[in-house]
Automatic annotation (TrEMBL):
<dbReference type="Pfam" id="PF05105">
    <property type="entry name" value="Phage_holin_4_1"/>
</dbReference>
<feature type="signal peptide">
    <location>
        <begin position="1"/>
        <end position="25"/>
    </location>
</feature>
<keyword id="KW-0472">Membrane</keyword>
<keyword id="KW-1133">Transmembrane helix</keyword>
<feature type="transmembrane region" description="Helical">
    <location>
        <begin position="69"/>
        <end position="90"/>
    </location>
</feature>
<keyword id="KW-0812">Transmembrane</keyword>
<keyword id="KW-0732">Signal</keyword>
<dbReference type="InterPro" id="IPR006480">
    <property type="entry name" value="Phage_holin_4_1"/>
</dbReference>
<protein>
    <submittedName>
        <fullName>Phage holin family protein</fullName>
    </submittedName>
</protein>
<feature type="transmembrane region" description="Helical">
    <location>
        <begin position="102"/>
        <end position="129"/>
    </location>
</feature>
Amino acid sequence: MKKTILKSALAALGASAAAYCGALAAPLLVLLGVMLVDYATGMVKAYITAQLSSKIGLRGILKKLSYMAMVAVGAAVDYLLTCALSAAGVGVELKLYCGLLVAVWLIVNELISILENLAAIGVPGFPALNRLLRRLRTAIETETEPTEGGKTHDA
């Protein structure tokens, strides 16, 4: 009986979180997954290279938590822009553009870090995948950088 109540409560909590996050739920789950894999491969790399340290590990965890804060800031910017535009009478709705952009950028960076950790561990790499991820990161960065006149490339 207690297991059923616990499972129901966890399912309700998960469904509530997914409904609240909306379009940001899937990228947040992917980001959480790649952060866990990156942390695990980083720990294995530190163990193999005899650099395992609880202080460095704690710093890594705090860094990963800061990533989630960055996504939250992006989502807050989206909310503020939507509110400001609607107050100005402009009917444009930004469907979590900044939050999604930050999440995708962080996912790509985490994937690159995982590949670097695996290479340091001695796992044979797939160079084409590494090049693809670096190109994707560059494309995301150049897509959001301001050009002359203050407009972004995607404007």
